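HOLO CASE FILE
Compound: adenosine-5'-triphosphate
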Amino acid sequence: MRVAPQKTGERMARKQIRSNQIPAQSPLPARRGAGAPPPLVELREATVVYPDGHVGVERISVQIARGEFVFVVGATGSGKSTFMKLLLRDVEPASGQVLVAGRDINALTPNRIPYLRRRIGTVFQDFKLLPNRTVFDNVAYALQVTGASREEIKRQVPEILRLVGLAAKIRNFPDELSGGEQQRVSVARAFVNHPPLLLADEPTGNLDPETSIGIMQLLYRINLTGTTVIVVTHDREMVDKMRRRVVALHEGRLIRDEAAGMYTEEESTTEFGIRMRAEMGVREGHTNGKSRHVHHASLGDN
Ligand SMILES: Nc1ncnc2c1ncn2[C@@H]1O[C@H](COP(=O)(O)OP(=O)(O)OP(=O)(O)O)[C@@H](O)[C@H]1O
Ligand SMILES: [Mg+2]
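Model generated. Tokens follow.
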């Protein structure tokens, strides 16, 4: 269903070398030529039926390669969050398979599920920060669960907070931050382990257009490091402008899969931000959030 030109494959391979991603651990036979790694994510005819009989998704088949940036779109109730939950094994398919890095994740024993989830960064519309912890602690927590040392935590947390433009807020609590800033903390938390896969379910759903561009710019920057990024969104304008792959769901079924934008040369994240602001009619001088100057200063080129 989707177009996978040679050029894209080569670019993905280069990206992988640039980044320090885990190698594929798949015992599965390669389906696209000898030695080709399996897709990072693959659904095979996956169907989810909730306990009350509601169908979440129906016979979805899709492959997402390492390094891709994919939007998942569709009306409310079309199955977007169910799709994301399948990848985290928050829900299990009634039929079909879900493979991550070539492994059927529904064959994992329960004690292995936390390891799967540690390899997948997640960002949600409502941020899901711990309200009684500082920004530092919210991000540090993601490192602690992987067994990182105190030294690593002390080094990596400020580094990632600089990346998202929040170095100055490190000792603040979530309720002392704007919505956009809180979402930056949750992106930092999702990325601090440099996961091969990052899932964002309506990450800009509660944010104004200017702040949304900043969050997309961050996700794009993360993608340029080699992390596969899957973003659920209702922001039609953002999807149209970003020119990335789009998977569309309708009533639980996959109805469209377009590789739009896969052929364009990569932009730097600064160029990306400038283009998005121009195309979405957000003026450079326009101020919408307190954090604007802070985060612009730290979003340099890759
Ligand atoms: N826990 C649940 N129990 C029963 N039905 C559910 C549950 N979660 C989702 N559904 C149903 O499954 C279908 C897909 O829901 P899902 O949450 O995946 O949609 P969505 O595309 O994320 O929608 P939205 O844009 O509103 O977030 C809907 O019909 C929904 O009512
Ligand atoms: Mg949803």
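CASE NOTES: DSSP finds ten helices and ten strands in the chain. Residues 209-224 form the longest helix (16 residues).
CLOSED: yes
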